[in-house]
Amino acid sequence: MVAAACASCMWETSSSESTDGTERPPADPGDPGDPGDPGDPGDDDPIEPPPPTDEPAPTGVEVSHRRELRGAWIATVSRIDWPSSTDPATQRSELEHLLDDIVDTGLNTVFLQVRPEADALYRSELEPWSRYLTGTQGRDPGYDPLAFAIEESHRRGLELHAWLNPYRARAGNVGASAPGHVMNTMPEAIVAYGSLRWLDPGNPDAFDHTLAVVRDLLERYDIDGLHFDDYFYPYPNGTEFDDRATYAAFGGGMAKDDWRRDNVNRMVQAVGALVADLRPDVRFGISPFGIYRPGIPPGVVGLDQYAELYADPLRWMDDGWLDYIAPQLYWPTTSSGQPYDRLLDWWTEQAVTAGRNLFVGNAAAFAFGVPEYRAQMASLAAADPAAARGAIWWSARSLLNDDEGLASVLARDYYVGPAATPVLADARAALPPAPTVDFAEGTATVESDVVGPRFWALYQATDNGWSLRELVPAAESEVYVPAGRWAISVIDRQGREGRGTVIQSAAPERPDPPPPPRTGEACEHSNGGIYADGGCSASWQCCDGGWFPRESCGACTCVERTGNLGCEPGPVEP
């Protein structure tokens, strides 16, 4: 399953490919002949014409752009990023605003935590509703948050990756478990570890259950990716993880540490195989702890994930079980024991060797300051592009609420212009053909034979070639094209992009869409308005992002920037 190291470098042209994309034989450097063989004429050999072919010449023009994953984690455990409220309308409004801010920052991918505690932020017959939706595990929130998030993300041109915790069953003393939760349905598979409750990775029933959850998500939801974080065996707290009974029953004579690693390896392998079988268009990856082992590379100190979390990311990459690795490099470039740039280079080298993608995990939550984040982005830009193709930020709220304006810096200086995510490491099928385009009065109606395309990519002809201007979700069949020479290509669900169909337009620039009406259904404010403690401004409140007299806002649900609920739906008192 291991692909070539630069399988997703779509902007590079091989030496045996012509500029118009047709195959040609490699250049003949000339045969100097063998001096000991007078019968070899060397360069005087006649050149044979290529054999005739019935293959039609490719249509369209070559187009491409530099791919990059620009992501953010949206954590739902303990409501770190979302939702802040148990009210469904507020939850939907918050998520819409969060996705809007993510788009404005220039990101193209969200990693939504949908299984924080062996529960579900989606409608499931296998696990109960998450407590973080309603306050009570198992209580129906009245809508499907994952389905809503997928629809809203795709509408904005964002990929939605479902983020699962494969083993955590309870994240501390957070309340009662629902009757249908694994704590009650398979108590023999649960290990208590401090206040945490953990699905035992060595328990076959736990293994089968988690795999069934993954299958259910792949079969029922239009997710673009499947994501695990760094929680395998729990981070050590000084006590022993009590899996003695499981080891005695299923250890099979292996040393306990090797057996534990094998339990995790078998899960990663099984999930990778399931994705490849059911949804080869889905990107499966893992974000492990940022240090593989102390002393690797030399001078690095810290937790040994291989020996203490029983995670072996090198095995996962080398055996091709996943598409990418996203090491959590939550340290500054100035750290002596955990230097960001040296760790990034080491992980990148491993990904290149294995033919996998690498997306570095960056920590906006640690508030290192804009100069440090610039240094980290410079390190990423200098890393080997054969693997290092983007970053995921921890976490969405921390990134967007950074007082120093990190999100604005990324949008202005780093995430300028659109970019599709890299091609899947194991993508094998032929490139999609140029689409059929019917063009009239500035509107291009686009069709393609590709099943379930992701984007129509709109390129503009410039003095330097074709430049990407817009990625239009393929669910929209029409693309507005202003005056100029343009090419439209198809990007499929595995990230492959074919040739572009050329059109010439004389249409004017597209007018800006009118602003949405101020309905007062969602308010976000830092001062003024009606606050959680009941206090209110004398005359003003913020409705849907704008300041208006209170009497003009109508019914309103306000959310302070602290995340606290400001006011419930209802009439606003004058």
Your description of this structure?
This protein has about 575 residues and is α/β, with parallel strands linked by helices. Helices cover about 25% and strands about 20% of the residues. It has 13 helices and 23 strands. The chain has an eight-stranded parallel beta barrel with strand order 1-2-3-7-8-9-10-11, surrounded by four helices. Helix 1 (about 90-105) packs parallel to helix 3 and helix 5 runs parallel beside helix 7. The longest helix has 23 residues, at about 255-280. The chain is globular. The termini are far apart. The model is unreliable at about 1-45 and about 520-574 (pLDDT under 50).
How many individual helices?
A: 13
Instruction: Label the overall shape.
Output: globular
Low-pLDDT stretches: 1-47, 518-574
Q: Pairing-aware structural class of the strands and helices?
A: alpha/beta
**Cα separation of the termini:** 66 Å
User: How large a portion of the residues is in β-strands, by DSSP E?
Assistant: 15-25%
Fraction in helix: 10-25%
Biggest sheet statistics: 8 strands, parallel, barrel
In the sheet with the most strands, the strands line up as 1-2-3-7-8-9-10-11
Give the oligomer, counting copies of the same chain as homo and different chains as hetero.
Answer: single chain
Report the count of strand segments: 23
Average of the residue pLDDT scores:
85
The Rg value, from CA coordinates, equals 27 Å
